[in-house]
Amino acid sequence: MRINHRIRIPEVRVVDADGELIGVMPTQKAMELARERDLDLVEVAPRSRPPVCRIMDYGKYKYELSKRARKAKSRQHQIQMKEMRLRPKIEEHDYDFKAKKVRTFLEERDKVRVTVIFRGREMTHPERGEKILKRLVEDMSEVGVQEGPIRREGRNMVLMLIPKSSGGSKTPPSKAGEGDGKPSTGKRVSKTSGDRSGEKPGPVKSGPKPPAGEGPPPGPVAK
Fold first, then answer.
1. Which among 40, 64, 104, 198 has most CB atoms closer than 10 A?
2. CATH fourth-level superfamily of 81-163
3. Could you tell me the pLDDT band of residue 216, with boundaries at 50, 70 and 90?
4. What's the CATH number of domain 4-71, 3.10.20.80, 1.10.1420.10, 3.10.310.40, 3.40.50.920?
5. Cα–Cα distance list, 13 to 5, 32, 35 (Å)
């Protein structure tokens, strides 16, 4: 952004400090107008024809821009790429120290590029590097997840870890009737007083039928 004498264009379109258009005039005259008001002539649209310049307090303008940038930056965390290097024959205490650093990076919401560096004859045993990286993925499972497969880059083996999302894990659905608070859909078979053993009652057997032509035996005669 060019200001005052750094504006080399002979003619510019001028806007005053209140945003009102003054018009097209020679650049020298526009600078004199800005100087009379103790302000600066600032080129705000250099690609326009003629370029647009505004009369303003350039120092105050830069301060306001910086203030807004700091405020926007404080509202968001910029994800950074961290790097951790391991050896295929790493000692246990070295592994614990570096794993702790990786955990810190992930807790701070940064990505981590983990590189296993092979030297000399170590290249004949790539499974050792892969074993270390898989162990690290398992150890970081609470705070991070693996991004993409483990890959080879020349003599190195590379793993990418990213922060785990803050959303809670989903609880697997419980089986029907196991403490879900919902009534069972099956029908209950009520037990009668004569069926306490839980067995289904059998068919009711009727007495012997009277011979053909005979009626039912006479009942008692009412007195």
1. 40
2. Translation initiation factor 3 (IF-3), C-terminal domain (3.30.110.10)
3. low
4. 3.10.20.80
5. 16, 14, 17
| pLDDT tier for residue 6 given thresholds of 50, 70 and 90 | confident
